Amino acid sequence: MTTRGPSTGQDQLFHLTPAEYGPDFREHVLKQYRLAVERADAVSDRRASMNEFYLVLSSVILSVAGVGIGGTLAESPAIPPKLAPWISIAGAVVSIAWLAGIYSANQLNRAKFYVINRLEEQLPAAVFSVEWNYRTSGTEAPSKATGRLYTSSTYVESVVPALLLILYLAFAAYLFLNP
Question: How many whole angstroms separate alpha carbon 116 and alpha carbon 125?
Fold first, then answer.
């Protein structure tokens, strides 16, 4: 078995040639390809679950922070005024964690699809590679002009936690300045 790595410019994914591996090479590449696609789907499922979790958590915190603001304006506050701004700070921390989770899942998916695209080089059709190239450049061939046709789901997903972060920070500022 030969070892190949980035320092030699050789391939890390296929450390054996089809001839070195034997007659089952393509069958085993196809099995690994199927597994890689299943794992990429699992990351997407976890990402959706994570977004649901953070959305529910943020909704609860936002509600409590709203009660905190109402409490600072009422004669008998529902939440102690000194605690209310810290609830908003907790919401901001949750929003930052949510954004970090979105970008982490994006990086993991990028890595998985890099491997999937590389495995496609050994298969008769390059379904994901061609789809990605078309979505980003409008052609089947790779292009440096990415992003013209496709808005990243990571960007779209990040809008809600980013807006919540701004809202939480505004709540916190208001509550700290108006005790």
Answer: 12
